[in-house]
UniProtKB/TrEMBL annotation:
<protein>
    <submittedName>
        <fullName>Uncharacterized protein</fullName>
    </submittedName>
</protein>
Length: 75
């Protein structure tokens, strides 16, 4: 904890809040649901994207790897 304070030069609770916000951003990614293309003239078009901002992602399974061979460890 002291190392975190020395590296960031501030309070550690601010750093952990920042890490928590970054995790939340990864959990709720902006996902494209639909694309609508409007053709205005020959060769000119506008694309409208709709996003799902609330749909959560599912974190992948944790796989432990050997530090030397980088192969998955069997538990």
């Amino acid at each position: 904890m002291a190392n975190v304070q020395l590296l960031w030069g501030g309070r550690s609770d601010v750093v952990f809040d920042d890490l928590k916000d970054q995790l939340r951003k990864r959990m709720f990614r902006k996902r494209t649901v639909q694309r609508i293309t409007f053709i205005i003239a020959h060769g000119i078009s506008i694309e409208l994207n709709s996003y799902a901002l609330i749909r959560p992602t599912i974190p992948g399974a944790i796989t432990w790897l050997d530090s030397v061979t980088n192969l998955p460890l069997k538990v």
